[in-house]
Design a protein that fits this description.
Bound molecules: zinc ion
CATH superfamily: Immunoglobulin FC, subunit C
Structural class: alpha+beta
Strand order of the largest sheet: 1-2-3
Strand content: 5-15%
Oligomer: single chain
Distance between the termini: 62 Å
Largest sheet: 3 strands, antiparallel
Helix content: 40-55%
Radius of gyration: 16 Å
CATH architecture: Up-down Bundle
Length: 123
């Protein structure tokens, strides 16, 4: 019989794979967004399901990338508005017209390179 340790290690491994998949899904979501935002939304839903299944807490960098109300992938100035107020970042989803608030902390850009270099400035 395999011990408890074996199973907890297995679980840990699965969780790691889940985290990897979530990261990939978000990268794919960003890639697809300009051509087909529906693909992005689907990626977001998948990623959230994975997070739930493995009890993974999404890092803040990812949390601000989608609307928690309607699961839409959010791209600032395209389908969401970002404002700072009272030490909080307020995201307004143009898709479902709801707000999300996050405590304001300095962004740690290096953890995930979801680049914004392709953002069009003319919008
Ligand atoms: Zn929304």
């Amino acid at each position: 019989m395999k011990g408890k340790d074996y199973y907890s290690k297995l679980k840990q491994r699965k969780k790691q794979i889940g985290e990897q998949q979530i990261t990939e899904l978000f990268l794919k979501a960003e890639e697809a967004f300009s051509s087909n935002s529906k693909v992005s939304d689907r990626c977001v839903r998948k990623a959230r399901r994975l997070a739930m299944k493995h009890k993974i807490r999404l890092p803040k960098e990812l949390k601000i990338r989608f609307c928690k109300h309607c699961n839409a992938y959010l791209s600032p100035s395209v389908n969401c508005r970002v404002r700072l107020s009272e030490g909080k970042v307020v995201y307004y989803c143009l898709n479902c017209k709801k707000y999300m608030r996050f405590p304001y902390t300095r962004e740690k850009k290096k953890r995930l390179r979801l680049s914004s270099s392709e953002k069009r400035k003319d919008l």
